[in-house]
Design goal:
The protein is of the alpha+beta class and 457 residues long. It has three domains: 144 residues, 2-Layer Sandwich (Beta-Lactamase), CATH 3.30.450; 76 residues; 150 residues, Histidine kinase-like ATPase, C-terminal domain (Heat Shock Protein 90, 2-Layer Sandwich). The protein has eleven helices and eleven strands. The strands form two sheets. It has a six-stranded mixed sheet, covered by helices on one side. A five-stranded antiparallel sheet has the order 2-1-5-4-3, sandwiched between helices. A hairpin with a 2-residue loop joins strand 4 and strand 5. Helix 9 runs parallel beside helix 10. The protein is elongated. The protein starts with a helix and ends with a strand.
């Protein structure tokens, strides 16, 4: 694996992995083929000569052991094509005579059943034979029957078949290499299309990737397009913020300049207060825009731990409003992750909890839920609630980010701005008993199933 990790080309890595594997498997198959072929040949010959021994035994028993009355000689050689020995105490029949040095020692002594004799060094004799020996009694006299076959001729046929198998295996390996190369080339075509599309994207010819890639490359194309969308949104937000900031501070700066350029009027206390007010407006505008610039919006690879952050914020709110109770209700585990930027989630939870804590009487409840396609944040308080005529105006873009403004609108414009960037929905409603309830739903394509028992703080 270390060698494969150093190879930069996918094509070379696949060939280096697949070709040796194919060659190794083909060589193993060829080796096993040779073993099986030899075993099958031995079993086949052994069964044949065993049947011939049984036939001879049957013939001998029919003639009550009188082997001189058997049809031997050319008859057995033409029918069975094997060498044989029939031995009684009175006489021995052996055919062909050239096998006598090999078979005669087996007549006097030898095990019953199949016998393999190899590397016999006598001239004009077979060097590898398979014989089957059986001794039995007929009419009280011992008889030994041996039938044997020369395995050399059969082995020559096996070697020829094995060589042809090797030739076919080599041809199959070459065909496998060609198929692997063709398959890799066809599989890598979408990569070439993606590379061409990236060049067009870099050259400004296209704004998004529209490649008909296979299933394995679809997530990559989707993530790249999402990254491009995120970058475009960031650029649009930056331009909008600069335009808003330029428009907002132009008038105060012009007023201060006029005061400073008017040499006919001394800088009395009234003018100083007016200049301070104008500069204060500029500072507030800068602070508001700088705060908005920190909102990241959905980012690929960014995530937050909602349960951990919620507990930290609830602890802080409990210190900020010591006479009130802040409770967390959730079935999520501590290691559950949400695809929300950490700073954005802190702003959402912090502003909603601060708003509820400011107007609650005794208790604030925070509920975190995760569905298959939706993340839900619910903040409820037991305060006076909001007039039904004004409830739809909460969190609108026209509200100021001023923490001194009374009412439920405190900080909700920040939440509304973040909600818009995530494509989420924020709704407010008065509770049946009393108090205000804020429900935020963030859509998400995939959500890890990290759930556990409900917990309360």
């Amino acid at each position: 694996m270390t060698l494969l990790s150093k190879i930069s080309s996918v094509r070379k890595a696949l060939l280096l992995l697949l070709l040796p594997t194919g060659v190794g498997l083909m060589a193993l198959a060829w080796f096993v083929h040779g073993l099986l072929l030899d075993r099958m040949s031995r079993d086949f010959v052994e069964n044949r000569i065993q049947d011939e021994v049984a036939f001879l035994e049957h013939q001998i028993r029919q003639f009550d052991g009188r082997i001189e009355e058997l049809q031997t000689g050319d008859y057995f050689e033409e029918v069975f094509h094997h060498a044989f020995v029939i031995h009684t105490p009175q006489q021995t029949i052996l055919s062909p005579e050239s096998w006598a040095p090999v078979l005669e020692p087996l007549v006097q002594s030898g095990p019953q059943g199949a016998i393999r004799i190899q590397d016999y060094d006598a001239q004009a004799n077979p060097v590898d034979i398979l014989a089957y020996r059986k001794a039995f009694l007929v009419a009280g006299q011992p008889i030994v029957v041996i039938v044997s076959e020369d395995m050399a001729a059969l082995k020559a046929s096996q070697v020829e078949l094995h060589i042809w198998t090797a030739i076919v295996s080599i041809a199959l390996i070459l065909l496998l290499a060609a198929v692997i190369w063709l398959g890799i080339t066809l599989a890598m075509k979408p990569v070439a299309s993606l590379r061409t599309a990236l060049r067009s994207l870099q050259g400004g010819e296209i704004s998004r990737l529209d490649v008909h890639a296979p299933e394995e490359f679809q997530p990559l194309v989707l993530q790249l397009n999402q990254l491009l969308d995120s970058l475009d949104q960031r650029l649009a937000r930056s331009r909008e913020a600069l335009a808003n900031l330029s428009h907002s501070i132009k008038t105060p700066i012009s007023a201060v300049r006029q005061i400073l350029e008017d040499t006919s009027r001394p800088l009395d206390m009234e003018l100083r207060q007016e200049m301070a007010a104008r500069l204060g407006e500029i500072a507030r505008q800068l602070e508001a825009e700088m705060r908005r610039s920190k909102f990241a919006g959905p980012q690929i690879g960014k995530s937050a731990y909602p349960v951990k952050q919620a507990r930290d914020l609830l602890w802080m709110m409990g210190r900020l409003y010591p006479g009130k109770s802040f409770e967390l209700m959730t079935e999520l585990t501590d290691d559950c992750r949400w695809p929300v930027e950490e700073h954005d989630l802190n702003e959402i939870l912090g502003n909603l909890l601060d708003n509820a804590g400011k107007w609650s009487t005794r208790c604030v409840e925070l509920c975190l839920q995760a569905g298959e396609t939706t993340l839900s944040i619910q903040v409820s308080d037991d305060g006076p609630g909001v007039d039904d005529k004004l409830i739809n105006d909460l969190g609108t873009r026209g509200l100021r980010l001023d923490e001194q403004t009374p009412g439920h609108g405190l900080g909700l414009a920040i939440v509304a701005d973040i909600v818009q960037r995530y494509g989420a929905t924020l709704s407010f409603s008065n509770r049946p008993s009393k108090g205000l309830e804020a429900i935020l739903k963030i859509p998400t394509p995939e959500l890890p199933a990290n759930t556990a028992h409900a917990g309360r703080r």
